[in-house]
Design a protein that fits this description.
The complex is a heterodimer. Chain A is mainly alpha-helical. In chain A, 78% of the residues lie in helices and 0% in strands. Chain A has helices at residues 6-38, 54-81, 84-116, 124-145, 149-181, 196-237. Chain B is mainly α. The chains are: A mainly alpha, B mainly alpha. Chain A binds chain B through residues 79, 131-132, 134-135, 137-138, 141-142, 145-146, 148, 151, 154-155, 158-159, 161-163, 165-166, 169-170, 172-174, 176-177, 180, and chain B through 147, 151, 154-158, 161, 164-165, 167-169, 171-172, 175-176, 179, 201, 204, 208-209, 212, 215-216, 219-220.
Chain lengths: 246, 222
């Protein structure tokens, strides 16, 4: 059960070099994307300027799914090959994914107020993103509830993968539930095609979010690895408790 | 197969002889219905309209509360280690455990539903669809419960965490279950297809959950 940190050390070197690059790339892309989104793209003929919320909202929703997929892939690798780095990646992706999901919910709510006249509609997409948010919370809570890192990683991986196969079913059931209960008039008749002038900033913002996610993930993984190393050193070098003197 | 049956019989005997388990969740169900009724108010029309959703909610909550006990006693007294040694796959243990849990904890809930529905003034045509929808969907809850309980073995303060982990996963059962109950009550042609969707959901859990639960048990025993 020994942690073989040899490989993580190589990861450490690579990550240290990648983080600044990714951060800069994300920042520059976001600058271009935001400029185009806020100034250089047309207002929607129905929604006016509030359509610009889309450029921060839609990429956040994409990231919510991308983070969960990353977690699921890392969990599967960690589960099958028992590689600690994969466990660390899955664990580190969760809070970032939860943050993006929360961002998607909040911006969706802010967008809903001018569009639908209400902060929250039980719209199919909002509802399934809300359920996704709770899946993230459960996953993070499970990690926090188990002290033994290896056991926590295995059990959390099971939860993550079970959640992953369930997401399409949840999505389907919520879509179905929504179409039954909610009059379609509340939903925007979303244009089937999006014009290029809006698509370019949207793609740019998506890229900025994805690069930012990669940078955050690496930073968070390095933090987790450092924390584990400290824990191991403390276990090896120091007496177990020194704070019990009254 | 023989071993699975033996585990099943043993669990059933334990659940009904020792008393408590099954009765407690029925009492919990009744109390939840009472609280709902008090909160909604004595207006019979409103209560009748929300009777199926209330009973479905109460049954789901009662089921979730019964999850963490599935493996706990076996884990503490060591019988789980013996089962792990004696059987080829812990997945099969999980299936028998789920079946025993359904019969001992959820079947009483389903049987208690009609009398409680009377209190809520459920229309006569709605009884059969409500009971059938619960009967088709609740095995999925037991299967999810086995996974939850297997995960919970190494956890502190497990029960609230179990709720957080299981509730999002069982949303499809609630959505299709209540929809089937309502469709049946309205004599809608959607009743059959919805039951089939529920059954598909249960069958999917029958494949996925014992596998996951078996793996979780393995990690928690070692």
């Amino acid at each position: 059960m020994a942690f073989d940190l040899a490989n993580p050390q190589r990861f450490e070197k690579l990550a240290a070099r990648l983080v600044p690059l990714l951060t800069i790339a994300s920042g520059v892309t976001a600058l271009f994307g935001l400029y185009m989104a806020l100034f250089d793209s047309p207002a929607d003929y129905q929604q006016g300027d509030s359509v610009r919320i889309m450029y921060v909202h839609v990429p956040a929703a994409w990231m919510a799914l991308l983070c969960y997929s990353t977690m699921a892939i890392a969990s599967a690798i960690g589960f099958i090959f028992k590689h600690p780095l994969a466990d660390v990646a899955a664990k580190s992706a969760a809070p970032i994914g939860a943050a993006f999901t929360f961002l998607a919910l909040v911006t969706g709510s802010l967008w809903g107020k001018p569009m639908w006249g209400t902060w929250w509609a039980w719209d199919a997409r909002l509802t399934s993103v809300l359920i996704l948010f709770f899946l993230y919370i459960g996953y993070i809570a499970l990690w926090n509830a188990i002290d033994d890192k290896i056991r926590a990683a295995r059990l959390a991986a099971i939860v993550c993968l079970v959640g992953f196969i369930n997401i399409p079913i949840i999505k389907f059931s919520v879509d179905w539930w929504n179409s039954l209960h909610q009059p379609a008039s509340v939903l925007r008749a979303g244009g089937p095609t999006i014009h290029g002038s809006m698509l370019t900033p949207l793609i740019l913002m998506g890229a900025a979010y994805a690069l930012g996610f990669a940078a955050l993930l690496l930073v968070s993984m390095r933090g987790e690895l450092a924390e584990r190393r400290i824990a191991r050193l403390e276990q090896a070098g120091r007496p177990p408790s020194k704070a019990t003197v009254a | 197969m023989k071993k699975m049956l033996a585990i099943f019989e043993r669990d059933i005997a334990l659940a009904f002889r020792a008393g408590g388990g099954a009765i407690n969740s029925v009492v919990f169900l009744a109390l939840t219905v009472l609280i709902f009724a008090l909160a909604v108010g004595p207006d019979r029309a409103r209560l009748a309209a929300s009777a199926a959703p209330i009973l479905w909610t109460a049954a789901t909550l009662a089921a979730m509360l019964s999850f963490d006990s599935i493996f706990q006693a076996d884990f503490e007294d060591g019988s789980l280690d013996v089962l792990a040694e004696a059987t080829e796959s812990l997945g099969f243990v999980a299936v028998s455990k789920a079946a025993a849990h359904w019969v001992s904890a959820l079947l009483p809930l389903i049987l208690a539903t009609p009398p409680l529905a009377v209190l809520l003034g459920l229309p006569a045509a709605a009884y059969f669809p409500l009971v059938i929808s619960l009967a088709v969907a609740t095995p999925a809850l037991s299967l999810l419960g086995v996974l939850a309980s297997a995960l919970a073995l190494s956890l502190r303060r497990a029960s609230i965490l179990m709720t957080i982990l299981t509730a999002p996963l069982l949303t499809p059962a609630v959505i299709f279950g209540v929809a089937a109950a309502n469709a049946g009550a309205e004599n809608s042609p959607l009743f059959g297809p919805l039951l089939m969707l529920l059954a598909a959901f249960t069958l999917l859990f029958l494949i996925a959950m014992p596998l996951a639960a078996g793996a979780a048990l393995r990690f928690n025993i070692d």
